[in-house]
Amino acid sequence: MRIADCSVEDLALLDRFMPSYSVDGNHRARFARQEAGGSTCLIPWLDDRPVGHAEIRWTGYAAPEVRAARPGCPELNGLFVWPGSLRSRGIGSALVRAAEERAIARGIGLMGLGVGDDNPRAAALYARLGYRPTVAYVDRYAHLGSSGERHECADPCVFLVKELSVVEQSVRPS
User: Which top-level enzyme class is recorded in the Swiss-Prot or TrEMBL entry (predicted)?
Assistant: First the structure.
């Protein structure tokens, strides 16, 4: 498996293998945020097929209670492994590590992510990876149903944060 930043050429394959019904978190919206410099979209690949995604939102999470508790903390958003038969094989952990490496490369010493109260499996993974609860919040989002109807959602969540080890890089003389 390899993990790469999303490119415009990846969008058609993402739509083919992992259709997204999110109103603002679909592949093209994520890629547009990446192109604008606000995020980095990560894609794990197996045998030239995308098997998930995650987006590092460098500007942090929008919920006011998260911003107040951890201002300036980048957020790992939309972590997803597909198909479900590939879950629990290390792909999600690899996506988290790849996001952390990119934050460290930018000199950022922490990473945050949200987990729904109804997702104890993901919460256990994040705890194993060193993420600790910081603040409760409500994740508000919209998605489109199978007939194109809009559904508004409000899920209780916890924002988790991990302090990263940022090693200062020495400048090599030329």
Answer: transferase
